[in-house]
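REQUEST FORM: STRUCTURE PREDICTION
Request ID: SP-0412
Submitted by: Lab K.M.
Chain count: 1
Length (residues): 275
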Amino acid sequence: MLLARISFVPHMDHEEAELVTVAEAYLASLLKNGQICGEHVTGWTDCIMHAYVRIPHRDILLPKYHSVWGQQELAAVERQFGAKPEWKILDDDTSARVPTLKSAASLYLFTHGLTNASAVMHGSRGTSIPLPLLPISDLLREELFLWQQSYLNHDRIWLDGGPLEIAAYKELAEPDSQLLSAGRDLCARIEEATGKPTYLYLLRHWGIAAEEETRPCPKCGQEWRDSSSPMPSKRPFRKFHYRCDPCRLVSHRAVAFGDAELAKIGAFPKPDAAE
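STATUS: Completed
RESULT:
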């Protein structure tokens, strides 16, 4: 992630509040399109409005990566300010490489409460691919952004949500939850657009130690443990213990044991427990 500054230089006589509204609308379009990540900071210096943002790629602010809405907001900025915004990368590491779609044999959808990077991950490298670099529609990019915000909120509640902790965990761990059902739909649409098998990550925290190695896919009930993955194993995050190709789901071994009731969350129901 690189730090950049976007400068809005007024060349026309407008109220400051009007200029701020137009500039913020443009920044919002960049955020929803994946061109800037996370919160930004704005301020005025010498009659110039500056926005300090984080970007996932050194060229990502070029207009060619704008969505149709971004192009509209850029035109509005040019009308109000009398010029297009100027931007400059402030980080030294401007040569940092971003993994490309071409080099990925597969993709997976994953995020967490401590990141704002793209949720579309390179299958073998485990690093995020900026949304504007994917051959997907503007609408799908915005839907991915909104889904990620929902996931981040659930993840933060699970980490520190008091009485809402278990409800949030169910949304993150059960493949048919509202959140993950939407995630599976997004994965299918990404796969259709890119031609790359695209998996959804399921969180697995609680489990039963004696049953983890033989735990079936929580969606279809078939075997899904990777035979090359010994348990427990400290393999890199992207090397999942479980993968179901038909259901396009991946996951890891549980890390907390001793509560059989919580272990049922996100697990395929046993025949005697199904109703």
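NOTES: The longest strand covers residues 37-45.
Reviewed by: T.R.
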